[in-house]
Design brief:
The complex is a heterodimer of chains A (106) and B (125).
Chain A (H helix, E strand, L loop, with lengths): L8 E4 L5 E6 L9 E5 L6 E4 L13 E6 L2 E6 L8 E9 L2 E4 L3 E5 L1
Parallel strand pairs in A: 1-9
Antiparallel strand pairs in A: 2-6, 3-4, 3-7, 5-6, 7-8, 7-9
Chain B lengths: L2 E5 L2 E3 L5 E8 L8 E6 L5 E7 L6 E3 L7 E6 L4 E6 L8 E13 L2 E9 L3 E5 L2
Parallel strand pairs in B: 2-11
Antiparallel strand pairs in B: 1-3, 3-8, 4-5, 4-9, 5-6, 7-8, 9-10, 9-11
The chains are: A mainly beta (106), B mainly beta (125).
C-alpha cells in the first residue's frame, strides 16, 4: 500500500521559515494537499493541488511537489501556526495521509 | 456558510454496530462527493470512505472494507457511515468532510474542505 512519510516534529523560531516534507514514491506525479490541525480543532485545508491556497489562508503558506517529495513552507512563521500538519494524496481510489508533523514555534 | 455536523458516536462493545450521521448545509449537497476520515486518540488522520455525489461509486480503506458502509441521502442532505463488527482499533473521532474535486476513471484529484467537528466512537468491553 502507498505510504507518505513526514517528520514527526519540526521546530522554528518566530519569524523564521519552517519547511515540512512529505515523501512518497513518485509523489510528484500525484497531487498533494496539506491540512493544518490545531489543538482540539478539526483539520482545515491549507494547500491543495500541490501549491494552491484556499481563500482565507495566509500567503505565508506555500507548497511544492516534485520527485518523491512534497514540501509545505511557512514563511515568517507565527505563534498561531503551531499545530499538526498532515499531507494527503490519492493512490488510485485510496486516499492516503502522512503521519503528521507537529510544528512548534519556539 | 457550509456546515457539517456529525452525530451518532458513543461507546460500544467489540463486535457491535453503530451508525454515524453527518448533516450538511450551506451548499448543494448532491454536487459534492463526501468522505469520512477518522483520528484515533493522539494519532494521525486515517481516511475511511468516500462516496460520490449520486451515491456511486464508493471507496473504502482496506481496514474497514466489508465492515463499514458509506451512504448518503440527497433529499435530506445527510451522509451516513454504518459500522459493524467494530473492533478496539476503530476507536477514534470520526470526521465527515466535503470533497472538492473529483474521482473519475479510477483517478482522484480532490481535497477535503471543510470538515465537521467530529464524533467520538469508543469501542471497548
Amino acid at each position: 500500500s502507498y505510504e507518505l512519510t513526514q517528520p514527526p516534529s519540526v521546530s522554528v523560531s518566530p519569524g523564521q521559515t519552517a519547511s515540512i516534507t512529505c515523501s512518497g514514491e513518485k509523489l510528484g506525479e500525484k497531487y498533494a494537499a496539506w491540512y493544518q490541525q490545531k489543538a482540539g480543532q478539526s483539520p482545515i485545508i491549507i494547500i491543495y493541488q500541490d501549491k494552491k491556497r484556499p481563500s482565507g489562508i495566509p500567503e505565508r503558506f506555500s507548497g511544492s511537489n516534485s520527485g518523491n517529495t512534497a514540501t509545505l513552507t511557512i514563511s515568517g512563521t507565527q505563534a498561531m501556526d503551531e499545530g499538526d500538519y498532515f499531507c494527503q494524496t490519492w493512490d488510485g481510489t485510496t486516499a492516503v495521509f502522512g503521519g503528521g508533523t507537529k510544528l512548534t514555534v519556539l | 456558510e457550509v456546515q457539517l455536523v456529525e452525530s451518532g458516536g458513543g461507546l460500544v462493545r467489540p463486535g457491535e454496530s453503530l451508525r454515524l450521521s453527518c448533516a450538511a448545509s450551506g451548499f448543494t449537497f448532491i454536487s459534492h462527493s463526501m468522505t469520512w476520515v477518522r483520528q484515533a486518540p493522539g494519532k494521525g488522520l486515517e481516511w475511511v470512505a468516500y462516496i460520490s455525489g449520486h451515491g456511486s461509486p464508493s471507496y473504502y480503506a482496506d481496514s474497514v472494507k466489508g465492515r463499514f458502509t458509506i451512504s448518503r441521502d440527497n433529499v435530506r442532505d445527510s451522509l451516513s457511515l454504518q459500522m459493524s463488527s467494530l473492533r478496539d482499533e476503530d476507536t477514534a473521532v470520526y470526521y465527515c468532510a466535503r470533497v472538492v474535486g473529483y474521482c473519475t476513471g479510477g483517478v482522484c484529484d480532490n481535497w477535503f474542505d471543510p470538515w465537521g467537528q467530529g464524533t467520538l466512537v469508543t469501542v471497548s468491553s
